[in-house]
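Suppose a classmate hands you a notebook page containing two proteins, each written out with its sequence and a corresponding row of structure tokens. How would you begin to make sense of it? This section walks through that situation. The first entry is reproduced here exactly as it would appear on such a page.
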Amino acid sequence: MKAQIGMLGLAVMGRNLTLNIRDKGFKVAVYEYSEGVADDFVQSEIENTAKIETAEMISSNSLKEFVDNLEAPRIVFMMVRAGEVVDFYIDQLVPLLSEGDIIVDGGNSLYTDTNRRVKDLSEKGLIFIGMGVSGGEEGAHYGASLMPGGNSAGWERVKPIFQTICAKVDNEPCCHWVGDNGAGHYVKMVHNGIEYGDMQLISETYQLLTEGLNLSIEEVREIFIEWNKGDLNSYLMEITADILSFKDMDGAPLLTKILDTAGQKGTGKWTGIDALELGIPLTLIGEAVFARCLSWQKAERVQAAKIFARKPVDTFNGDKAEMIRAIHDALYASKLISYAQGFRLMREASKEYDFALNYGDIALMWRGGCIIRSKFLSNIKQAYSNNHELENLLFDEFFTNVMKTCDVGWRKAVVLGIQLHIPTPTFSSALSYFDGYLTEKLPASLLQAQRDYFGAHSYERIDKPRGQFFHTDWMGKGEQTASNTYSV
């Protein structure tokens, strides 16, 4: 009997997804480029499950054997490195596949690459699906958030498998069809951008509590555990508390021995770049990416700290309990801003790229399995159920009330960072965005006047209809020709 799906790529995610698919009752063919890896993987599972033989997994030693082991129409699920490696395997697979066969790319591919692959493979009679996968090793094995998009002709074929192996919340699968072409990978890209923001926000919270309020790691851990029982409940809060409790071999907290340089794989940067292309302010995620970049300038930071040796600053001597609540509110409000910006970006992308995204379904997919799963994703789902055309989450009653409640504490936390020389790039940028979004009249009028002065870029007037542009001869030289106007 042939396999119902094939897994190409047996690194950590590929292995765990294979076990997940097998455990849910589907037969899987497996292949890995390195010789012997697939055989060893299947053999080890035979030994682990104490079976003389296994009918659930079939190892393959060549791509042809791998494809031949799949029932038609074939489903090839690739979990390989994004970029050229994906194209390499597609080129190898195409001559071996037949019309109507499906290739699924579960890596963190750039959505524009997925757009191209959907088109190219469709012309060859093949179906391509680009699917975001979030949840790490544990999610891959026991239920991840799956975000499929691409050629919708393949959805009904893969749906029974993916909605079975994904995470479930209230018996709802965390896997729905996202949209055509690169929609699945686009949503995963934004997910990862929000993940960057969440992680940086929690890190800034940690620094404010430890350096700002002089709390011990154990005290901060207890605070995070308590916060995780309420509005801030999330996977990242949960694992942060675990990290804070972990001791090194000498009994000291391991966290204090980890070098303060954070890596990245590029999805956060992609999110920021696309936000710039679409003209959507994604300030918090952008600052989270830049914070990682700054962390890598370790040697320069050490040198700068010596050159600009600061005078000792006053330590916090106010009401600690009150300030802890303020920092809680700053984290909560900033987190909501990050999601509001992320969903606003997806709204713009949906129009620009014809994705036809369902924002409520996206919130549902992120409630379980994925790295950013959190309590208030249910509120996001409800917000879009109330109004699918909601321009910004801040206009929903739930989010409006939260922002009003957290406003005072948010500002206190940012001021604390400024006073004690503790950087809070994401707290501060989120607050600045919020204040700007709430400002009916911004100083952009002066900015536009400057543009018209030096570049004849023209401007609109408040006493004239929108869309009419004017140019002033600011220098009195009689120049009345305006330059072409441009806006994002």
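The notebook's second entry, a different protein, reads as follows.
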Amino acid sequence: MKLGIVGLGRMGGNMTERLRKGGHEVETYARTAPERTADSLVELAMKLEQPRIVWLMIPSGAPTEMAIQTLLPLLEDGDILVDGGNSNFRDSIRRAGEARAKGVSFLDAGVSGGIWGLAEGYCLMVGGDETAFETVEPILTTLAPEGGYARVGPSGAGHFVKMVHNGIEYGLMQAYAEGFELLREIDGFELDLGQIAALWRNGSVVRSWLLELLQRAFEEDPGLEQIRGFVQDSGEGRWTVHEAVDAAVPMPAISAALFARFASRQDESFAAKVNAALRNQFGGHAVEAAKAAAQGKPGK
């Protein structure tokens, strides 16, 4: 099949390569990528024949919104627009309605697989019109491993499932992080963390691909000394917790994992200072002096 891909970053670039290896003809556009085949979204649309298929692999939020609003006037009845980024599912529902009003089909595709997707394939969670899904299915078959793609529901369902997927990922990663910290800190054993990660990959009930990646990380840097313990989040964990609150669904593990990421970004916790001050005030417990004078935020 012939399609256009917008975005040639770590995901979009590898997906393009996998599709071309699979026999598909791919036109590409990215603002800063020299290997692009089109210099604008307008030119990209002109390079495609109807029914056009345009797949976005760009950051969620304003970049995706701008691309969609630019593309919709360029597309015609029967064309298909796929958002493969990590957009909020509520935005995807709205965008599907806007596309439908113009006769364009919109699919929201949650994509998982990271930098390994080129070789291993991508897990694809697709929401939207069933006919449009069937049209792009040859593309999905090439991108995914066997059993690795599905239409999970109507518009918005793909990005909703991917959002929850990423929330679960937060919880799994935090559980491994806490467990391996305890293994490292226990006195008297001097455990080889890489050895344990490798051991648990074979027959253990906690075996997983994440554990395989952790073993690889320990092989490259046994003490993780080259990595700062600063953990960013890209939004899906926050959205998952927000939706859980709205639906009154208890989600303590994922919520705690999200807050642990926030805590990782603090050089020193003001909340911990409050705790220490209170213990000193009510019980006379000793406090440790600050290492340096606080910088900025004097009254915040």
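A careful reader of the second entry would note: The chain has a mean pLDDT of 93.
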